[in-house]
Amino acid sequence: MNPHKLYGITASDFQHPKEESSMRTLKNTKGLEKVVKKFYDMGIENIIKLQYTGSSLKLSPKSFPDLFRLTEMACDILNVDYIPELYVQRSEQFTATTLGVERPMIAISTECLDKLSNQELLFMIGREVAQIKSHHILYQEIGFIFPELMDALSNITLGLSGVLSSGLKYALFHWAQMAEYTADRGGLLVCQDVYVTKKLFTKLAGLPEKYWATFEVEELENQARAFEGFTEKTFDKFMRFLYGNNLWAIARAQEIINWVESGEYNKVLVAKSSSNKIDYNSMF
Question: Does residue 282 form part of some domain?
């Protein structure tokens, strides 16, 4: 596992165009500035952090040296100076979450630590580091606390909170879905192993563990290529608004496969890599 360090890489180098577009829409949505101000005034980030730190085990470099080395590696590859604190959260899903705008922390699920290889963990951690680099955390946290935040905001919007919440809630939801594509690109740029990434998506999509060794990745590729995707029709938007799921692994696999096959992934990798790989194996 000797990926290239990426020199001078910026978030725009791997930002998905749909996320860029949805972010513009979100920032232009009426009421966002009030919500952001209220978010900070009420100290909501501290409340969210307390919810995680009060129920999750903080990991140390001494007890989890490999995981900390993977995190340092991900930050090194994407040129992120701050090394996040790590927590483990009990969950049967392959998930990782980043909290904290100023001082990010990553909460990773027990399922990830129990079942994923170091390369797969590098992809998962790389996604979170990419979100830190892309400044996703503020809007993710606002989306997480949105219903409660709108109730608190209602007293200062003169009865307009219902209108604001419907527009902002959809804008936040749509952006969060598109931000998953950007995060996946960042994870791949850190992992730098396309096959491992595709294999991980089979697990995210629900492949039972007893089939992990025998399932052919080509079947995932075929399903992803055949997936019709989401249109931007109003009805489709409404249905996604109601029933969306950020774990939608096949749609995400389709986007990452398209990025690789378009040559854009390799273009970024070549443009930002040095000629020599860093021997990260010596870290383990």
Answer: no
Domains held by the chain: number: 1
Token pair of 218 as six digits: 């080509």
Collect all residues with Cβ–Cβ distance below 8 Å to 89 and sequence separation of at least 6.
52, 55, 56, 95, 97, 107, 108, 109, 110
Which pTM was predicted? 0.89
Residue 117: which residues within 8 A CB-CB, separation 6 or more? 196
Per the domain annotation, does 182 fall within a domain? Answer: yes
Q: pLDDT per residue over 152-207, tens digit each? A: 555 555 444 554 566 777 888 889 889 999 999 999 999 999 999 999 999 999 99
Output the CA angle 88-244-216, nearest 5 degrees: 70
- Residue 156 CA neighbour count, 13 Å, CB half: 9
- The residue type at 169: K
- Asked if 138 and 36 count as a contact pair (C-beta separation under 8 A), the reply is yes
Q: What are the pLDDT digits (tens) for 107-156?
A: 999 999 999 999 999 999 999 999 999 999 999 888 877 666 665 555 55
Range of the domain at 245: 11-272
- Which DSSP category does 9 fall into? -
- Whether the Cβ atoms of residue 128 and residue 96 lie closer than 8 Å to each other: yes
Please report whether residue 84 resides in a domain.
yes
Contacts of 85 (CB under 8 A, 6+ apart): 58, 103, 105, 106
| DSSP assigned state of 87 | E
Please give the Cα distance from 170 to 53 (Å, whole number): 29
Q: Which tokens in the block code for residue 136?
A: 């996703």
- From the list 282, 269, 188, 281, the residue with the least C-alpha distance to 5 is 269
The answer to whether residue 4 sits within a structural domain is: no
